[in-house]
Amino acid sequence: MKKILVLGAGYYYRQIIKQLMEAGFYVLAIDKNPGAPGAKYAHEFESIDIVDKVSVLDFAQKKRIDGIMAVNDFGTRTASFVSQKMGLVGLPYEVVEAANDKGLMRDVWRNDCLAIPRYKVISSLNELRNTIGEIGFPCVLKPTDCGGSGRGVSVIRSVEDIEWSFNFAKPYVKNARFILEEYLDGIELTIESLSVNGKVHILAESDKVKPNIRTRVATSLNYPAEFCEDTLRKVEALVVQAVTAIGIENGMAHTEVIITCDGPKLVEIGARGGGGHVFHTCIESTSGIKAPVEFAKLLTGDCVTLQEINKNGCVYRFFNPSQGILKKVINFEKVKDLEGLLDLGIVKRPGDKVGLLGNSHDRAGFVVTEGKTRKDAVALADYVENTIKFIVDPLN
């Protein structure tokens, strides 16, 4: 049995661990939380912070692992460090740096003349005020390196928004670098890919639904993306160029693209599979490919087998109740066993604030549906969302 070390054992990583075990891997998992929900599913679990590269390397060497898998942005640097030290399949450190720091990412893409928004890296509120005229309104302010999930990201539409956006981003800034960029008006797509020896395989594409709020947190991912073949070919070609330019020769990538009136433009990339249910559920539902298993084969030196990639319907929908304090959720039992429902969960608990979408962690819950077509999956997600009711006390 090949030994694969998974960097993370949180709620959303349980299914990854189970899929790898079912595929015949010996799975080791680490997480700084000793009570991590995925711990009981692994063959072995150790409470280690995934960003502690030296401790993870020591553990990996003692266990003589055959591969190491990052499942979020926080683990990619550690996976690179360990794989390089142990001579395993992985990504060079400069590659994961560029995939984590949006400023470096943009620099790489600009040097390759890829389609990206105008941008400027800044480090202070004064610099933001002095620079914003170069980009113009509306624009977007982000930490360059925040670990994903939309942490600290907001749209600036006027001078009055500048200070709020800076203070909103500041808690998530780890390297004193913010990125100010042109706001791209259009539909955003997510593209999941697996690169094997430099060849980029597109596995799944979704389009996002985003409410018109300044944090722009998505409320639905719908597969397959609903655009004409010509547009999708342009998107896929751009994604292949973007993944190749960053240097992801052997690994997963989660790329975001916006379809503008001038064609597709790159937003950002992650050197790992998509978050939440995307990596382990949505990719398989729409494409037929078990992405964690194929990725683990790649990381442990086995042959990757990508059969014909399908385009079935799948929806990853997030519940967004009105703002207030959650009292209770009703009608959950009415929908939990519906055919075509892959997963359903309520994240918030009575007494929690809901409806405040600062980032993806503020979502109240989710449903994942599948169908023969996108229309079937959307209809089922709509039914579930309309049936479940969040009883909320309004905020004073």
Brief sketch in words of this structure:
This protein is of the alpha+beta class.
Explain how this protein is built:
The chain is α+β, with helices and mostly antiparallel strands and 396 residues long. It is 32% helix and 28% strand. It is built from twelve helices and 19 strands. Helix 3 packs antiparallel against helix 4 (93-100). 46% of the residues are buried.
Topology:
Elements: E1 3-7, H1 14-22, E2 26-30, E3 44-46, H2 53-63, E4 67-70, H3 73-86, H4 93-100, H5 102-111, E5 119-122, H6 125-135, E6 139-143, E7 154-156, H7 162-169, E8 178-182, E9 187-196, E10 199-209, E11 220-223, H8 229-246, E12 251-260, E13 263-270, H9 278-287, H10 291-299, E14 313-319, E15 324-330, H11 332-335, E16 341-346, E17 353-354, E18 365-371, H12 374-387, E19 389-393
Parallel strand pairs: 1-2, 1-4, 2-3
Antiparallel strand pairs: 5-8, 6-7, 6-8, 9-10, 9-12, 10-11, 11-14, 12-13, 14-18, 15-17, 15-19, 16-18
How many individual β-strands?
A: 19
Helical amount:
25-40%
Note the total helix count.
12
Query: Which parts are unreliable, with pLDDT below 50 for 5 consecutive residues or more?
Result: none
Shape: globular
Oligomer: single chain
Taking all residues together, what is the mean pLDDT?
A: 95
How many strands, what sense, and barrel or not for the largest sheet? 8 strands, antiparallel
Q: How far is it from the N-terminal to the C-terminal residue, by CA?
A: 57 Å
